[in-house]
Amino acid sequence: LxxxxxxxxxxxxxxxxxxxxxxxxxxxxxxxxxxxxxLLDEPFSHIDNFRKNAxxxxxxxxxxxxxxxxxxxxHDSTDSLSFADETIVIQNGRMVDKAPSKxxxxxxxxxxxxxxxxxxxxxxxxxxALTQKQDEMVLLYPHQLKVAEGGxxxxxxxxxxxxxxxxxxxxxxxxxxxxxxxYKELPxxxxxxxxxxxxxxx
Length: 202
Known about the structure:
Blueprint: H1 19-32, E1 37-41, H2 49-66, E2 69-73, H3 77-83, E3 86-91, E4 94-100, H4 101-106, H5 111-115, E5 121-124, E6 137-140, E7 145-147, E8 153-162, E9 167-173, E10 176-182, E11 191-196
């Protein structure tokens, strides 16, 4: 119960608990059996965000300490990037990628895989002045593009989304939507120049 932060509810019947609390109790019951292999299907889906992060850290640290192999089916990239040694990507019932999590993040095989980690841009390399070859494409996450005076990519700001420590900027390059990150909000309809941030590739 301590691992799932439910010791204070030890004497309360499960039917009187919330959905998230019942999910944590279910995890505790499984852990009590000390399995060799554990399969978890969306284990944190009904748990509040403020508690989810601590629970993830506690649970995966416990499993690693006990040497318990765990397979997690999830749509939350945090489960994969922060805690998984290896990630398997399934698309339409087929395995399309299998590699260490960091490798899959920085070298996704296709746009579908990259989009599992958030917004992603598919841009022709020639527009970034990285090659003269036409139609050769590159996948870039928003944080891999930066505002740079004289940058090769000139876009029009369309919308700004506050993300706490940064802004996610939606912009337009002709008819294509381009997402990038910036430390401050930018005026809508302002034209800015973008370049690849070579320090954002791990």
